[in-house]
UniProtKB/TrEMBL annotation:
Top-level taxon of the source organism: Eukaryota
Keywords: Isomerase, tRNA processing
SUPFAM superfamilies linked to this entry: Pseudouridine synthase
Family: Belongs to the tRNA pseudouridine synthase TruA family.
GO molecular function annotation: RNA binding; tRNA pseudouridine(38-40) synthase activity
Protein's recorded name: tRNA pseudouridine synthase
Gene Ontology biological-process annotations: tRNA pseudouridine synthesis
Pfam families membership: PseudoU_synth_1 (PF01416)
Amino acid sequence: LTHALRPNSILNAYRVTDSFHARFSALSRTYIYRLLMGCSHYSEIPVFERDLCWAPVGGYLDVPAMQDAAQFLLGTHDFSTFRSLNSETPFQSPVRTILQADIRPSSGFLSQHYEHRRLEFWELKFRSRSFLYRQVRRMVGALVAVGQGKLTPHHIKELLERKDSRAFPPNAMAPPSGLFLKSVEY
C-alpha cells in the first residue's frame, strides 16, 4: 500500500484501541454542500465545476430566507421527513442533533477565470454526530426550495413536525454532485 502513496500524503497517524471504529467512534461529521447561483442554463456552469456543485434553476436564491429556514434545523429533532428510506431505516432512530447549519459565500475552484460572469458560489455546512440516509441532500433541497420561494422558512419547521418521509416535497432532494464530507472529529 505505501508504494502507491505519494510522498507526504499521510500527514498524521495515531494509535487507537481495538474497539475503535472509523464510522461509529466519530464525535461529529461536517458536510459541505456547494451551490452555484447566477446560471440560467447548465452550459453556463464552469467546466471544472460541473460535477462539484449544484446550480439550481432560476438563477439567484433568497439567501436570507434560506438562513432563517436553516435555524429550524438546529438542535435535536426527529428528522423522519428528511430521510430517504433504505434497508437500515427500521433499525435506526430518526432523532439527530444538528450542531451547525450555516450558509455562507464561497469561491469557485478557478473563480479568477470567471469572476466577470457574476456567478456566486455558496456553501451550506452541516455538522452533527451522525446523519440519516440522504438527510443532508434533503435538507439542502428544502432550503433551496425556500430560496426559490416555493416554501417559506416556517415550512421547514412544519416538515420537521410531520415526521413522515412521504411529507417531503417531491423532487426537492438536492443532487449528489455538490455534497462533500469535509471532516470527521474523533
